[in-house]
Amino acid sequence: MKRYANAGKILPKELLEEVQKYHTGVLWIPCPSRFYKERRQLVIALHEQGVNTKEIAHLAGVTTRRVNQILADRRRASEIRQVETASGK
Questions:
Q1: First to last CA, the chain
Q2: Domain annotation covers residue 40
Q3: Is residue 16, in this structure, part of any structural domain at all?
Q4: Would residue 38 count as lying in a domain?
Q5: Where in the sequence is the domain holding 15, given as residue range(s)?
Q6: How many domains does the chain have?
Q7: Which residues does 7 contact at the CB level (< 8 Å), separation at least 6?
Q8: What percent of the chain has pLDDT over 90?
Q9: What is the DSSP string of 22-59?
């Protein structure tokens, strides 16, 4: 998966000039939000199947650190739901 591209090589000249009116330098363009939701679901599904963190990272196109963050966020959310259920909220 290629993560970076030269905007001058991939954007039409008019669009590049329009972007340059607002910013020059490194610019991060986020993917549609569904991409992140789907990637998170993939990480969780692979983990539940017993796939190791390094392989999950490779398959999902993220770092092992990001895999661990996603899994930690899921554990925290699960713990919060358990506390809310136990307290009757």
A1: 44
A2: yes
A3: yes
A4: yes
A5: 7-87
A6: 1
A7: 16, 19, 27
A8: 65
A9: T--S----PPPHHHHHHHHHHHHHHHHTT--HHHHHHH
**Pair 43, 62: CB distance under 8 Å:** yes
Locate 86 and state its tokens.
């136990």
Question: Radius of gyration over alpha carbons of the chain, in Å?
Answer: 19
Residue 2 lies in a domain: no
pLDDT of 82 reads 74
What's this model's pTM, rounded to 2 decimal places? Answer: 0.64
Amino acid at 83: V
DSSP 80: H
- 21, 15 Cβ separation under 8 angstroms: no
Q: What is the pLDDT of residues 35-64, one digit of tens each?
A: 999 999 999 999 999 999 999 999 999 999
The one-letter amino acid at 82: Q
**Per-position b or e across 18-53, b if 16+ CB within 10 A of its CB:** eeeeeeeeeeeeeeeeeeeeebbebbbebbeeebeb
